[in-house]
Amino acid sequence: MTPVQPPLSFFSFPTEVERLLAIGSIGRDHLAKTAALALSLVPGQPAAQRLPLGLHARDMLISAFAEAPLDGDMALMLGQAKLPREFALPKDLQGVLSAYAQFWQPPNAAHPFHALKGPGNAEARAHLVLEAGSLEPRNIFWKAEAWRLGVVHGLWDA
After folding, report:
1. Under a CB-based contact definition with an 8 Å cutoff, are residues 136 and 105 in contact?
2. What are phi and psi of 142, to 5 degrees?
3. What is the mean pLDDT of the chain?
4. Rounded CA gap, 128 and 146, in Å?
5. Using an 8 Å Cβ cutoff, are 62 and 93 in contact?
6. DSSP state, 117?
7. Of 20, 84, 101, 152, which has the most beta carbons under 10 Å away?
């Protein structure tokens, strides 16, 4: 069972973590950076602060993934994170991350998808993504790219 997070006030964080949290508490990259810093500081904390700080850091990593749940690279990073047992990810999330490891397959460097990444190629990229997605229906990468094309370029029907 995952330990329940004991209360920890904002002012109980180490100064370096406080500084990053003062900047913000959202955004995949920012949360991942803040969590990594917090985890690196756990061993040097007083005994009573180690568990709460580590659990908050783990929760920041989970929040970073939640910021971009179709980002397989983030899922793989989180799934491969070497967290101490007391900061283990919830079992349900571990299952999701294991699925990403199995079904996230970005195209190799020679794939035509990479040549279409520049500006002005969104519709051609959308066509390629739909075609690749139909050829590899279990590959989460193509689903993430289809979503990104819809959000960024408004190509929901492409």
Report:
1. yes
2. -70, -35
3. 89
4. 10
5. yes
6. -
7. 20
Length of the chain measured in residues: 158
**pLDDT at residue 27 above 70?**
yes
- Taking the alpha carbons at both ends of the chain, their separation in whole angstroms is 45
C-alpha span between 90 and 80 (Å, rounded): 14
Query: Could you tell me the two tokens for 137?
Result: 């229906």
Q: How far is the C-alpha of 39 from the C-alpha of 51, rounded, in Å?
A: 10
For the whole model, what pTM was predicted?
0.78
Residue with tokens 């995949």: 28
The DSSP output letter for 1 is -
What is the token pair recorded at 140? 């989460």
DSSP string, 79-90: HH----GGGPPP
Which pair of structure tokens corresponds to residue 41? Answer: 């500081």
Q: Are 58 and 82 in contact (CB under 8 A)?
A: no
Supply 32's token pair.
Answer: 């991942």
- Plot region of 112 (φ>0 → left; ψ -120 to 50 → alpha; else → beta): alpha
C-alpha 64/C-alpha 54 separation (Å) is: 15
